[in-house]
Each structure stands twice: as C-alpha cells, then as structure tokens.
Design a protein that fits this description.
Blueprint (H helix, E strand, L loop, with lengths): L2 H22 L21 E6 L5 E4 L2 E4 L7 E10 L6 E10 L8 H15 L5 E8 L2 E8 L11 E10 L14 E10 L5 H9 L18
Antiparallel strand pairs: 1-4, 2-3, 4-8, 5-7, 5-9, 6-7
Amino acid sequence: MKKKNLITAAVSLALVAVVGVGATLAYFTDKTDVKNNVFTSGSVDITLTDTSESDKATEVENGIVYEEVMPGDLLDKNVYVSVDKMSAPSYVGVFVSVDASTFGRPEAYDVMGLVNDAMMRAGTMNNWNQYPVSVGATDGVLYVYNQVVEPDDQNDVVLDLFSDIQIPTSWGNDFAASRFSINVQAFAAQAENFSEGQFIEMVDGTLTDSYGNVIEFESFGA
C-alpha cells in the first residue's frame, strides 16, 4: 500500500473512532417537571373569656375580685371558650379549681357546688363531661366539651360554661368574713390522631412520649 493511502486510512479510522466515542454518550433520556409538594400545618387556637358586669366586681389583671357579697346575691360571671374559626378540630376543656376559705367555711365542695349550680341554671351541664384531674399541684375538675369542636372557617365556635354565680341564702354566719376563689383555665388539643383519653391525661400531666417525657401544653403563637 502506498504511503498516501496508509495516511488516508489512518485518518478515516481516527474519525470512526471519534464518531464511535460520541455515540456512546448519546443515551435515550427523559425527565419530568419538578413537583413542589407544599405542606401547611393546621393549628389549635382558643380564647378563654371570664368577665363580669356586676357592680360588686372589679376586673384585675388575672381575674375578677368580688367584694361585699351577701347570701342571695346573683353575681354576673360569664365564662366561655371561643375556638377560632380557622382552628383544627379539637378537644376543648376548662379546668376549674377553687381556693377555699382559710377560716374553714366555705369548704372546697361548697364552692364547687356553686359552679355546678351555675351550670345547671345556664343549661350547659349536659354539654360537658367532668373528670377529676390535677394541674401541677392543684386539684380540680376538668370539664371537657362532649364532642369534638369543628369550626367551619366562617365563624368562631363559642362554648358556654356558666354565666353567673349565686351565693346561697343558706350561708349563715359560719361563712361571714370568708374569702374564696374560683379559678378557670382552658385547654385544647387536636382531635385528629389523638383521643379524648389522651387529652385528659395531658391536662393531668400523665401523658408521656416513648422516652417517658411528659407531654406539656404550649400556648399557640407564644
């Protein structure tokens, strides 16, 4: 073979090699658009209202002070929970505790009787289930609304507890110059993937995670 032919053959082989290498990098391929998966969490949002229009009442920073109350007084005291219209379906409860008189009367059961009587007058007793619990070191009664509260995104849901407290006419001199308190605190927790029993345990401070840590309530937005 002549030298010129050899050179031409060598160049041709080189071109074939280059084309061959290029061909190994050309695959059948495809791809899709990016799918952006957005997760928006819900929330549980409640407000406790405790007000009074009684002329014997003075609202202070953390509650209401009633002075010079007498047997037979019907004292305005509106206690209710509002569940925000955008809130997720929730269990809602109100913890009621009392500080009885240091003078011996009224005793704790006397004061809790005033709450139950108030709920009977308001017609709300059957709307709430009662459970004895402790919040911290304080014993009391947890009133749990008897169904899951499901706002409709349009209006807040208002859950009435009671609207007045009446001092019994049967309270005589044994109750004179006494001082007692009725304390209320509201709690709520998601209903989905949760149970009413767990909600009660959580208020009572006995609900724990798999590591034995107590699961506590936190204020929404705090």
